[in-house]
Amino acid sequence: MKVYLKQIVERLSRYLSKIKTFYTNSVRKMYLAGLVVFSVLFVGCCGSEPLRFPTWFKFGAASSAYQVEGAWNVSDKGESIWDYLVHTRPEIVAGGGNGDVACDSYHLWRRDIQMCEELGLDTYRFSISWSRLLPSGYPNIISEDGKNYYNNLIDGLLEKGIEPVVTVHHFDLPQSLQDLGGWANPLIVDWFTDYAQVVFSLFGDRVTYWVTINEPFILCEGVFPLFLAPYYDDPNIGRYLCNKNVLVAHAKAYRMYDDLFRSKYNGKLSLSTLFFWFEPATPEDEEITDLMFEFWEGRYAHPIFSKEGGWPVKLEKNLADNARMEGYSHPRLPPFTSEEIDLVRGTYDYFALQHFTSRLVRRLRPGERNPMWPLIGSSEMGIIMESHPSWVSVNDWFAIWPQGFHKQLNWLNTTYDLKEIFITENGIPLGPDVDDTLRVEYHRSYLEQILQALHEGVPITGYTAWTLMDNFEWVSGYTVQFGLYSVNFTDPMRTRTPRTSAKYYANVTRTRML
Ligand code: NOJ
């Protein structure tokens, strides 16, 4: 009891000091009101058991269409860039797998819903396959079977009291649009908005949380330096054209939702942003680390979430200088017009955060090459990303450092004016073995940081484990897995089996405690 009282007193004094800080700032008054309500609710529902998640906090799991659906050529489905890539360049996928059948969720969606139920989930995040719903890529043909599949999934989830969180686009562009330049062509803004309009009109009556575009950073930066379809070797130009087009496409879709659907459905839209936490390797690396935040995170978040909008100023100048020195006549990162800045700024109702790991950042030494993701960051920024010796390293890009997640959450909360942060992905890549006690520890320790951040007033409303079940992990094929359930990919029935982590997570969702 004493401990409990002490914690309440500590919590109140933390809030009192926040109140003091914000008191003189009238712009912050709305936030203050929210914070007070939040504190009262938090103490009300969780005060007696400090390690308990509030009842309104949503636990979920996620997947994406190409990674789980299979049925790549069933009915009138069109070809996506992944169908095309894995059939024309099978050698680029580790182990030679592809998503032709994957988890066969197109046929086994009832079992997927059952797993969500077993896990006690509040939400299930999945994506819609553009080429399944619109076989030509355009709204001239809407597939009846595609429509039925997603209607069944949404209705089936709702029947079990599970809220669908729907991603409109998750890396699987129709090949017909790729043939015209895909995300590097500014016309993609209209193609995407037309597609999104079909999606909202078909499913908007039952879906509140929307993610327009999944991880634009990886969509653009992963495509051009060779680790996602369409697998282009164009690190200098394509990624920057895509960067701007993806933001404008998201913004146009958001504005279209405002005009046509918001008054009827009152949904919440955002795009999901992948954030690594970057920690400077030494105090001398602080400046380059800040620039790295702008390069990776700011380039996708600043135009939407900052008050002023547009590209991060220092970074835009830095990239323009690079382009000039390299002999280009225009900046490689296309400038925004002032109309575009206004169009894009503020197009969010919540922040959809995808966080997996942290990296130490330092400058490359003379003659040194970045062994990992050589083109992300190192060519432009001259940096290297590493693990800290004290972090548990899982592979060459991934280490467990939950404190980095905590820092990330606080950074977001202080950098942008956010009313709601929803974690739309968090998970750990391990081998396909069924035993995954390390995954249990990963989720436990990252959830613990959320609890602490909630105590500090960070407005986090949900957590989504990546991923519901093992699936096609892009160019890593089936060699690396993130699933709470394992899937037997040699069994035609694609039998799903709960791992230790699934049992752990089901206990968390049931007890709301770690
Ligand atoms: C985020 C992506 O959205 C998802 O498709 C991918 O499988 C995970 N990262 C793990 O790499």
Protein described:
The chain is of the alpha/beta class and 514 residues long. The protein folds into 2 domains: 1-50; 51-511, Alpha-Beta Barrel (TIM Barrel). The chain is 45% helix and 15% strand. The chain is built from 19 helices and 13 strands. It has helices spanning 2-23, 29-46, 65-68, 81-88, 105-119, 130-133, 144-159, 175-178, 188-203, 216-221, 238-260, 262-265, 286-305, 313-325, 338-344, 378-381, 402-415, 437-455, 500-511; strands spanning 58-62, 123-127, 163-169, 209-214, 268-280, 351-363, 383-386, 392-395, 398-400, 421-426, 460-466, 485-487, 496-498. Strands 1-2-3-4-5-6-10-11 form an 8-stranded parallel beta barrel, surrounded by 5 helices. The chain has a two-stranded antiparallel ribbon with strand order 8-9. Helix 5 (105-119) packs parallel to helix 7 (144-159), helix 9 (188-203) runs parallel beside helix 11 and helix 18 runs parallel beside helix 19 (500-511). It is globular and about 55 Å long. It starts with a helix and ends with a helix. The model is unreliable at 1-48 (pLDDT under 50). The protein binds 1-deoxynojirimycin. The site of 1-deoxynojirimycin has 9 residues, from loops.
Summarize it.
The chain has 514 residues and is an alpha/beta fold. The protein is built from 19 helices and 13 strands. Helix content is 45%, strand content 15%.
